[in-house]
Design goal:
Order of helices and strands: EEEEEEEEEEHHHEHEEHEHEEHHE
Strand content: 25-35%
Shape: globular
Largest sheet: 9 strands, mixed
Number of strands: 17
Number of helices: 8
Structural class: alpha/beta
Low-confidence stretches: none
């Protein structure tokens, strides 16, 4: 397929600037693949669509405050440093993006606030990418504490176009967040509350985790018309054996396997056995790029937010739900004024 096939007009007023008052207070469009029927519900109604033998797979990655603001030595120029991933814990090396990049050269030192946190630029990786080494006398735990105190929640502020608030620290996480390492939240999971989870478990639904540490590539613009030529960033993922056992049991009993978000969908489809069952992964990397047409082996239901035009996330949604059906559903979502993007409403594809 072509990039232009995923283009549509999205009024900026439909991009959610803030989360709903309650986590489970979003609207939910339910799309049935077999009948093509579209229903308009609230997220709380998700309990009505799953029961015994069904499994919901969540991403338990935890977002860390990856956006730091510092100043360059001597000149004092203000610099934004976006932490992408830790490269070497012992040497305190990190892969980062810097802005404005033209001012940051190898050998420069960067100072963060009045703290003891200082970084030295040791390599150029891309036009905006750098490798930095933190110069810090304390332990790793003390350094991470400093980063947490100084860092800002990494909202995609270039799209949401507002300042980050204290509320974002809590709401830009899911209730399942456990293993720190993501620079973007698995947004579909942000709708769940413990109450909704308990109600579903009472109905016989199983919940189990995978971990996929979401990178900045989730927002990276596709810049080739021919989608077969697009390369996505690799992301670190883990699938425990306990999750495989639960998922495979549901497969054998012909239950629903619902991926809570496209990150879970990507992880599950990156670890399929010869018998179309889920395999455990201890420390894997995946750059899987899913777009139509695609034959899904594990997942038969998907919960996902409404995504931006030409994003890899709408491509994954269309691969799962069918291009025409999902694009028609998006047209209806715009007409019905559903909210899009990180803090927006949600779509359940069955």
């Amino acid at each position: 397929m072509k990039l232009s096939e995923f283009k549509f007009d999205l009024p900026h007023s439909l991009i959610a600037m803030y989360p709903p008052e309650q986590r489970d207070g979003a609207r939910m469009m339910v799309v049935h693949r077999k009948t093509k029927k579209i229903e308009h519900k609230m997220f709380k109604d998700i309990v009505d669509y799953f029961g015994e033998n069904d499994t919901l797979v969540v991403n338990d990655t935890k977002v860390f405050p990856a956006r730091l603001y510092g100043s360059k030595e001597k000149t004092g120029a203000k610099i934004e440093v976006f932490l992408l991933r830790e490269l070497n814990r012992e040497m305190r090396l990190w892969d980062v993006l810097v802005d404005p990049a033209r001012k940051i050269r190898v050998g420069n030192k960067l100072y963060f606030g009045d703290s003891d946190l200082v970084a030295e630029v040791i390599d150029n990786t891309t036009s905006r990418g750098r490798t930095i080494r933190f110069l810090f006398d304390g332990s790793h735990e003390e350094m991470m504490k400093a980063i947490h105190e100084l860092g800002e929640t990494p909202l995609p502020i270039d799209i949401i176009k507002r300042k980050v608030t204290d509320q974002d620290r809590e709401r830009y996480q899911t209730i399942f967040a456990d293993k720190e390492g993501a620079v973007a939240a698995p947004t579909a999971g942000m709708h769940f509350t413990r109450n909704v989870q308990r109600r579903m478990e009472i109905n016989g639904v199983s919940f189990c985790p995978v971990t996929l540490h979401i990178g900045i590539g989730t927002f990276r613009q596709v810049d080739v018309e021919d989608l077969t030529k697009h390369k996505t960033d690799s992301e670190n993922f883990f699938i425990p054996e306990s999750t495989c056992n639960i998922v495979n049991q549901s497969i054998d009993k012909e239950g629903k396997i619902c991926a809570i978000g496209t990150t879970v969908l990507k992880a599950l489809e990156s670890s399929v056995s010869a018998s179309n069952h889920l395999k455990p992964i201890e420390n894997g990397w995946t750059d899987k790029f899913i777009f139509p047409p695609y034959d899904f082996k594990i997942t038969n239901a998907l919960l996902t937010n409404f995504h931006l035009p030409e994003s890899i996330l709408i491509m994954m949604s269309c691969a799962f739900g069918g291009y025409e059906l999902i694009m028609n559903a998006y047209n209806e979502a715009i007409k019905e004024k559903y909210k899009f993007f990180t803090y927006g409403d949600v779509m359940l594809i069955l």
